[in-house]
Every structure is written in structure tokens, then in C-alpha cells.
Amino acid sequence: MSKMDFKLNSNGVADLLKSKGMQDVLKGYAAGIKNKSGAGYEQDMHVGKNRANARVWAETSQAKSDNLKNNTILKSVK
After folding, report:
1. Which structural domain, as residue segments, surrounds residue 42?
2. What is the pLDDT along the chain (78 residues), one digit of tens a residue?
3. Distances in Å between the alpha carbon of 77 and those of 10, 14, 15, 69?
4. Assigned domain for 29 exists
5. Secondary structure of residue 47 in the 3-state scheme
6. What one-character DSSP code corresponds to residue 53?
7. Which of 22, 47, 57, 62 is the most exposed place for a label (fewest CB within 10 A)?
8. Is 58 within a domain?
């Protein structure tokens, strides 16, 4: 077998991780998690230095209590 040398283009990977396509994928996952979690949960997405980031969090006091008791967000990731 021949030995292959592979070098990753860091700038290309960074561009891919910040791309509109990646943002759309992340928004879709975050929306699914938010919908599974129920009322009182919110989501947002932003592009950071190295990649796009999405997050879901408990906004209301009822959702915060629910998440604390039941790990709702974590279970919604499955």
C-alpha cells in the first residue's frame, strides 16, 4: 500500500464551520431540542471566531425548575 500524506486546510475548515449551511443545520437541531423540551425554553445561534454556535436554555422559572429536576434539555438532545 502507498503511504498518503494528508494535510487539513485550517482556513477551509473554519469557513465550513461558519458557513450558512452549518448555521442552518445548527438552527434545525436547536429548534428540535427546544420543541421537545416544551414551553418556556428558548434558542439562539451566533457565529463565533472559529465556528457557528447554537444554544437552548430554560427562560421561564417553570422551565428552569423543570430542567433542574428532570434534565429536560439534556434528555431532549437524544
Report:
1. 11-77
2. 688 898 999 999 999 999 999 999 999 999 999 999 999 999 999 999 999 999 999 999 999 999 999 999 999 998
3. 29, 25, 26, 16
4. yes
5. strand
6. E
7. 62
8. yes
